[in-house]
Amino acid sequence: MVMKGIRDKIIGIDPMVFIYHLEDHPDYSHVTERIFEAVEHGKYNAVTSVITLIEILVKPKKDSNLAVAKDYKDLLLTFPNLKIINLDLKISDIASDLRAKYGIKTPDAIQIATTIYGGSKSFITNDESLKKVEEISVLLLDDIVKTL
Q1: Above 60 in pLDDT, residue 1?
Q2: Can you tell me the distance from the alpha carbon of 11 to that of 119, in angstroms, rounded to the nearest whole number?
Q3: Half-sphere exposure of 14 (CA within 13 A, CB side)
Q4: What is the 3-state secondary structure (H, E, C) of the chain?
Q5: I need a surface site. Which of 37, 64, 123, 126 has the fewest CB within 10 A?
Q6: Close Cβ partners of 8 (under 8 Å, ≥ 6 residues apart)
Q7: How far apart are CA 123 and CA 125, in angstroms?
């Protein structure tokens, strides 16, 4: 299934999209399910930063639920058509440009820089403040929900 607003074969995915999906968020799980099914079936290739692992593992580790943390990590590391990209000097340079230009938070700048570095022109998030970034098409889950 091709999602409206996503014109790219490669999409960047923000950690909150993974979290909404893994925690079965009542407002968003139906759309995250469609996104991840499309990635799994090769309609899109997805990229995300290695910091996504940090973000999704915090809650289960905080709750001392190491089995869930392991399951989440295993799922991301083996998910078809998903590339987890390590932070490197090139991504750091792009991220610092984004922070300097837009004043966005470092984790957001790293995620968007990783998406750009990974060859995508589309980034799925639900953080409206990132819509000001002009180097990439920032798609909000709230807007995708409206098209379904």
Answers
A1: no
A2: 8
A3: 20
A4: CCCCCCCCCEEEECHHHHHHHHCCCCCCHHHHHHHHHHHHCCCCEEEEECHHHHHHHHHHHHCCCHHHHHHHHHHHHHCCCEEEECCCHHHHHHHHHHHHHHCCCHHHHHHHHHHHHCCCCEEEECCHHHHHCCCCEEEEHHHHHHHC
A5: 64
A6: 44, 120, 121, 122, 137
A7: 6
Enter the tokens of residue 101.
């230009």
**Which residue carries 């960047």 as its tokens?**
12
Query: Do the beta carbons of residue 125 and residue 109 sit within 8 Å?
Result: no
| pTM, 2 dp | 0.93
CB 38 within 8 A of CB 147: no
User: What mean pLDDT do residues 141-145 have?
Assistant: 89
Domains along the chain with CATH numbers: 10-143 (3.40.50.1010)
User: Which two tokens mark 132?
Assistant: 């000001």
